[in-house]
Amino acid sequence: MYRSEVTTEESERTAFRKAEKKYKIYYDNTKKKKVTRPVDLSEVIDFKSILDDYNCNIELNDGVSVLNRDFDRPIFCLESRPGIPGALSIEEQRQWIRESLASFPQPPNRTNHNAIYGPIEDLFVSAKERRVLVEVERLPDDVCSEVNALQSDVCAPWYKFVEEHGELRSKDACKSVSASVLLRKLRWSTLGLQFDWSKRSYNISLPHKKIPDALCQLAKRMAAPAMPRGEEFLPEAAIVNYFGSGDMLGGHLDDMEKDWSKPIVSMSLGCKAIFLLGGKSREDTPIAMFLRSGDAVLMAGEARECFHGVPRIFTDAENADISHLETQFTQEDGHAYLDYIRTSRININIRQVF
Ligand code: SIN
Q1: Which of 133, 160, 184 delimits the end of a domain?
Q2: Beta pairing class for 81-84 and 75-78
């Protein structure tokens, strides 16, 4: 599974799991507060300093090479696994943070909240305006049975956002949840062809919209250096992952797409993270690297078949590395984006499915 790996004693002992445990966040409880336990980060590869060295004509570390193909800045390969530090400009980062929060979770795109609440509209704006989600009705059973075959969660109770002190009657209060809590609990949304997590497959019969054109163009540009010669990348689906403090993404393979000669374009926004890139088996020791806002990883070539995951994000001001975003959200609604991204990370990974 993707989000919640089944753990057995054996899987707890693999080299990948050991690395996850090494880098994940641990808290020590001192008398009054939770303190993050220090972690040895000396072995984490930092492509930002590799890029700085490269720009100053300093020799690259062993195992790092530069792929100079069809892109406007250096693409570094780590033992033939390509990635582009600083691939997105600051303006692009701002744009995709906004879209990831305000547009991507909008129906018919699905999110992790669908299973409980059905499709919910305007999550981000509702969080900003301190609305609460209340149960309003349940679809009649006969309608449910008709649509169940198509979309299992459509018959969840129906919910809508209301003003906190407005329509909320005392009977609703026990069935209400604030939009800001739901925003913090947003874990994923899916664009384009929708992914059915319970079956671990794309369900092409689920209602969906095409991936926005601007995102397709960006993904095509980034995928180009890692595409088989003469072929064009066709973005058909994207998974947007949202990470809050303490969240991690367990080691997994992306194996649901038909043609693994096509890369997955994976972009990072917001707080810095540690990304683990292993081998074809969980027994292979993964390489740890920092990913910062604007970096792109191309899961291509050998890496396309490798285990990977995110054991840690850094949400403290000193390590999050997002000071460049502070000036980017100045309009009236900008604070809501900034508040979110100061303690969060977003990953958009774009795939060709067929
Ligand atoms: C993923 O592998 O699905 C996401 C990786 C990331 O968050 O960088």
Answers
A1: 184
A2: antiparallel
In a domain, 2, yes or no: no
State the closest ligand 1 atom to the C-alpha of 2, by its place in the atom list counted from 1.
Answer: 3
Among protein residues, the one with the nearest Cα to ligand 1's atom 1 is 309
**Shared-domain flag, residues 129 and 224:** no
- Cα(201)–Cα(5) distance, rounded to whole angstroms? 16
Instruction: Please list the helix, strand and coil fractions of the chain in percent, rounded to the nearest 5, in that order.
Output: 30, 25, 45
| Nearest protein CA to atom 6 of ligand 1, as residue | 347
Alpha helices in 111-256 (DSSP H): 114-117, 123-128, 141-148, 170-173, 179-184, 213-223
Ligand 1 geometric centre to CA of 250 (Å): 9
Let me know whether 95 and 235 are in one domain. yes
Taking only the tens of pLDDT, the chain with its 354 residues reads 344 455 667 677 999 999 999 999 999 887 777 888 999 999 999 999 989 988 898 888 778 888 876 678 889 988 767 778 889 999 999 999 999 999 999 999 999 999 999 999 999 999 999 999 998 866 566 655 555 545 555 555 578 899 887 655 555 555 789 999 999 999 999 999 999 888 889 999 999 999 999 999 999 999 999 999 999 999 999 999 999 999 999 999 999 999 999 999 999 999 999 999 999 999 999 999 999 999 999 999 889 999 999 999 999 999 999 999 999 888 777 899 999 999 999 999 999 999
Bind-site residues for Fe cation: 252, 254, 308
From 349, 350, 351, give the residue whose CB has the most ligand 1 atoms within 8 Å, as the site to mutate.
349
Pair (232, 302) in one structural domain: yes
Ligand 1 binding pocket (C-beta < 6 A) is 241, 249, 266, 268, 275, 291, 308, 310, 347, 349
pTM over 0.85, yes/no: yes
